[in-house]
Amino acid sequence: MPPLLAIDYGQARVGLAITDPEARVVFPLRTLAWETRDALFHELLAVISDQAVTRIVVGYPVRAGGDEGLTGRQVRNFVARLTRRTDVPVELVDEALSTEEAAERLREAGYAGKELLARVDAQAAAVILERYLRGGALCCEPSSSDS
Fold first, then answer.
1. Rounded Cα gap, residues 93 and 37, in angstroms
2. 58, 91 in Cβ contact below 8 A?
3. Is 97 exposed, middle or buried (0-12, 13-18, 19+ CB in 10 A)?
4. Percent of all residues in the chain with a pLDDT value above 70, rounded to a whole number
5. Model confidence over 28-86: pLDDT tens digits?
6. How many CB atoms lie within 10 A of CB 147?
7. Which of 7, 52, 88, 147 has the most crowded Cβ, counting Cβ within 10 A?
8. In the β-sheet with 26-33, what is the strand arrangement from edge to edge?
9. Tell me, what's the pLDDT at 68?
């Protein structure tokens, strides 16, 4: 089984994590700081191709009460754009508190300040991917927006 890729999407940075070829171990891969949509998708598609990714998991901010919220709409728009650019299947997984969990793991590993901030997005993507591998079912449809 080729690797799975997780994306922790943000308006300034996008964290990436990947599995080993057997999808048993998760590794934070990198954080993409982006300024233009075209540049972001160019980098993402390069990673997808270079790593021979067979499935993409994107963290989605599930909110109580069913209200999607601005961040949820932004993630859905991102996923809709991504699925137009790749044939690799995309799934959404609840990302609740993934950044907080990632920051705590990094603090426990001795990171602080700028070093922690430089790693937290990729580590959050790793948390999301670990949840998916533990049976984190699809939290919602990948793209109901076409913006």
1. 22
2. yes
3. exposed
4. 88
5. 999 998 889 999 999 999 999 999 999 999 999 876 666 677 888 999 999 999 999 99
6. 10
7. 7
8. 26-33, 13-19, 4-8, 55-60, 90-94
9. 72
